[in-house]
Amino acid sequence: MEQRVETKDRVGLESASPLLEVEDLHVQFLTSRGIVRAVEGLSFHVDPGEIVAIVGESGSGKSVSALSIMRLLPRHTGRIPKGRVTFNGRDLLKLSDEQMREIRGRDISMIFQEPMTSLNPILTIGMQLTEPLLIHMGMTTEQARARAIELLGLVGIPDPARRLEQYPHQFSGGMRQRVMIAIGLACNPKLIIADEPTTALDVTIQAQILELMKNLSRKLNIALIVITHNLGVVARYADRVIVMYSSQLVEENDADDVFHRPRHPYSMGLLRSVPRLDRPRGAKLETIEGLPPNAAAPPPGCRFAPRCPYKIAICETEPRLLRTDTGGLSRCHRHEEIAEGKIVWTAADQALQTSITKTGTPLLSVRHLTKHFEVRGGLRAASGTVRAVQDVSFDILPGETLGLVGESGCGKTTVGRLILRLEDPTEGELRFEGRDLTTASAADMKAVRRKIQVIFQDPYSSLNPRMTVGQIIGEPLHVYKLVPNRKGENERVAQLLEQVGLRPEMAARYPHQLSGGQRQRVGIARALAMEPSFIVCDEAVSALDVSIQGQIINLLEDLQRRLGLAYLFIAHDLAVVRHISMRVVVMYFGRVMEVADRDEIYRNPLHPYTKVLLDAAPIPDPTVEKGREPRLIKGELPSHMSPPSGCVFNTRCPIASDECRQVIPPLEEKRPGHFAACIKV
């Protein structure tokens, strides 16, 4: 009850009539293992036009809180025993299903974390975009189609009229997320709840989307609740931050205060776990050791105490949510000592790690790799050829990590799939340990795949929904006879789960019973089960919260040092790529734009596209972010069906000339070890 009083006092000071007010919300799930208390005593408010960010580790209750507001909890297992959710003066928890359906989509919209599970696979993108416009806005079919084309253009999808006729599986992960954002914006709602809205997006599109959402929020007075683990996004856009841990709100305050004057050890640890572009790279990422508690049986006293380096005897009693010196709220017995500077989260002694220059015979050699997809025309769609990958070449040495970055749709994932021989190249050569993979038979590839593994971008679609986590991880152990018996398999599965930050009892669960971040960790454990020498990491940590992300990156680096693993690390988070990679390849529209040593490419980028990528990346510091405008990339993405002549970046390049529109620049060594495909450099 105290939390309600504290929060209501804050509301009275800031706004007499919040758009949304959540009071003492409790959410529970009935499971075979007992009652899981997913949210306990949550109270907060959102004013019109305000951007509120909810951060915290996977499983902390962030997404469940959003689903509770939307009344989308599972009907038979989810329940709300206590609490109120008031929107525009109406208690949403007391509305009928029909009344709630009228509000969803029109007044409140939600952008879900996993677009592939939210989009209907048997309906075209156009049908799914126009449906809310027809139902809630009363538009005609022609009006709805025109608005759908406009929305796809707003979120950066090229050739939107043709894309309306396509299905979700024909879009990349980032483009599917953009479609979900377009659906969320369709009816100009009063409140948008965005659950990890930019997880699958590259930095340039992320900046465009968030700027669009921020401008709509300011112009139309739309309130935003952004659930995210990207603290750079929070620093750039959030007015207020809510930090959740183990089903509870542990800190709430203005964004500046949370980042610069946190009053809870968990918030302090989160902020220290984030890799940053504006600071030197350390030997290892700082992490919060341990795992979040089991929501079905939380520890007594402070939930964070088992992982807190500052716990004392009083932490065995449950802390209340109290007002701090900064005017915010903190659920910590020692918040006054933190305010006085007596408690400071200290970093472990870490020497600065410099770039490692490796020499020798490449483990993987890619030469002039090209992949074209033939697209057949439908009733209203034109046929043609998509040039997904064009003349890509690079080497990866044993024990090396090569970062591959670029916008969604640039061909990063296709390169990974070609290396894995999940797709056959149109042209080019792939050699692994001296063996030509392009001509390898199915039997040869079975032996090779023991040494080449992959961690996919979308954990939900890459895990078999009919198998338990234990069966998913144990299957390759059984097929390749890596363990002597069932007991050995179970022990190895438990060991792998612990390696990636999951409890051994997770082996009995199915993928749908896990959060997005937990599913991604299962995918990593499955790849490690084969004890490979090379792993393609396709957005391997994009779905993880920052503390677990740091643990996984440190794990990957530890395994690399111990086992000599090599990685192709495909990602859109430039700070993570900088930390883990030794060399970086930048791709755009199927072609390589720049290749260099990690420190060199971040310190002295040569290609205009690389410069735009780095300028668009958010830094987790409100002082830095509020003082600079994101440098948004200009121009439209060209169509893969009709690529531009000359340099593929010329339609969006700030320094393009007539020559750039006529000549395809070769990838040339501009400085020792630094290659760029630009005639202006």
From TrEMBL:
Molecular functions (GO terms): ATP binding; ATP hydrolysis activity
Question: What compartments host this protein?
Answer: Cell inner membrane
Any idea where the ABC transporter domain is? 20-271, 364-614
The record describes its membrane topology as: Peripheral membrane protein
Annotated Gene Ontology cellular component terms: plasma membrane
Kindly give the InterPro entries that the UniProt entry links to this protein.
AAA+_ATPase, ABC_transp_ATP-bind, ABC_transporter-like_ATP-bd, ABC_transporter-like_CS, Oligopep_ABC_C, P-loop_NTPase
- Which biological processes are named by the entry's GO terms? peptide transport; transmembrane transport
- Which keywords does this Swiss-Prot/TrEMBL entry list? ATP-binding, Nucleotide-binding, Transport
Q: Which PROSITE patterns match?
A: ABC_TRANSPORTER_1, ABC_TRANSPORTER_2
Q: Which SMART domains match?
A: AAA (SM00382)
Q: Which family does it belong to?
A: Belongs to the ABC transporter superfamily.
Protein name per its UniProtKB record: Glutathione ABC transporter ATP-binding protein
